[in-house]
Amino acid sequence: MEKSTKKKGIFYGYFVVAGLFLIVFVCVTFGMTTMGTHYPGLAEQMGTEKVAISQWTVFVGIGTVVSLPFTGQWIKKVDIRIPVSCAIVLQSLIFFCISFVTNIILFYVCAFLVGIAMGILMNLMTAIACSRWFTRTASTMIGIVFAASGVGGIVFNPMVAYLIKEYGAAFDYRVEAIIILVVALPSALFLLRSRPEDKGLTPLGSDTKGVDTLPKAGVMAIQAFKSPSFYCFGFVAFGSACLMYGYQMTTSYITTLPIYEVMPLLGGTVMSFASAGQTLGKVFLGWIGDRNITVAYGVAMACGIIGLAGYLLFTTDAVYFYITGFLVGITAAATNVLVPALCRSLYGTKDYESIWSVASMLNKTGGILQSIIFGGILAASGGSYQVMYISFMVLMALMVGFTIVSMITSRKLRANWTTVEEDAVKKTQQEEAAA
């Protein structure tokens, strides 16, 4: 009896997406999105400067990069609920510990451990689960899930600011630890499932007869890593993360302009528009990526180039800043949505977990080095944001080019995609021939 894409009622994959959304909504929001709001309170708690606290993202990134090769294989081999639940408990426990930390070194150790959790909850969980449950709409689902961190920022930033102001950073972290356990852990345990087969289903994208028209085909990791296309893809994965620095420096850039003297709140307002662009851009770019990944990257980078050019050309009109900030936000959405989509387009889903864990390392390394590379360009140019933003525009143009080249150089590889079942049959035939 064939497995069907649907049973009566709602396709279970949507419940998986709902679970992923809730996990990202609290875990990634508290771990990354709201961290800027935490910095002043944490600096006061530890008696240090905010710049020292801001190194949180660096140590989180290091923890993620170091752990990804192991966590990627872990998710591949066991029920996805096990590593995800462990990561949620780890993050909650570390947040509770942070409420007692008064030493900056211990704070960095906590950041490293949270990075291990983020490797699962931010880098691996969503891309892998959506690729397993959906065929033609996986990128859209990834975009919807990652939009949760933007929604979470809107919901939780005011709460975090209030709790820190009224009760201190320690109390706030204890509240966050409880929220993570109460919201994320049940979502992981009761909503997530590893694969459609666990529910007697096939991925959504099957035809009306219930036959999966897009089987789990692709190449093994070793084939992908030997392909010239992987070098191009690696550059795109690394560069996509670097783009976040240009997005994050928006407020700092605006403070250097004459308009800031007249509108001192402009930087924060523009960042609100940029955040909206990033949140909506995740869904928008995911939708395009499901149809044509090359076009999706072209649209994302075009938005960034136009947005940054607007930053440099229209420095006296707030309305132009709102528009260009929104466009820059769309580009910032690419790292979460389009990188996993490009990985799936190039190498399929047969060994996606192994390939994506390595690609995530490259992506996260870009996130760690972005401030060194482009902060260095800013410093070397004498604080010229013009030079830095032009460098970003060059990077965006190169990324479109490398995306195209990666698709071209992988044509032969994609033409020879096989399924696990086909590999098993071929191996059996070879063994029989040898005998």
Give an overview of the whole structure:
The chain has 435 residues and is an all-alpha fold. The chain contains 20 helices and 2 strands. The protein has helices spanning 13-33, 35-46, 50-53, 56-77, 81-98, 104-133, 138-167, 169-191, 221-226, 228-248, 250-254, 259-262, 266-289, 293-313, 318-332, 334-347, 352-380, 385-409, 411-415, 420-434; strands at residues 217-218, 418-419. It has a two-stranded antiparallel sheet with strand order 1-2. The model is unreliable at 207-214 (pLDDT under 50).
Biggest β-sheet, characterized? 2 strands, antiparallel
User: Which class do the helix and strand fractions yield?
Assistant: mainly alpha
Along the chain, the helix and strand elements come as HHHHHHHHEHHHHHHHHHHHEH
Give the averaged pLDDT, no decimals: 88
Summarize the structure.
It is built from 20 helices and 2 strands.
What are the defining features of this structure?
79% helix; 20 helices; two-stranded antiparallel sheet; 435 residues; mainly alpha
Secondary structure blueprint with pairings:
Layout: H1 13-33, H2 35-46, H3 50-53, H4 56-77, H5 81-98, H6 104-133, H7 138-167, H8 169-191, E1 217-218, H9 221-226, H10 228-248, H11 250-254, H12 259-262, H13 266-289, H14 293-313, H15 318-332, H16 334-347, H17 352-380, H18 385-409, H19 411-415, E2 418-419, H20 420-434
Antiparallel strand pairs: 1-2
Helix pairs in contact: 1-6, 1-7, 1-8, 4-6, 4-17, 5-6, 5-8, 6-7, 6-17, 7-8, 7-13, 7-16, 10-15, 10-16, 10-17, 10-18, 13-14, 13-15, 13-16, 14-15, 14-16, 14-18, 16-17, 17-18
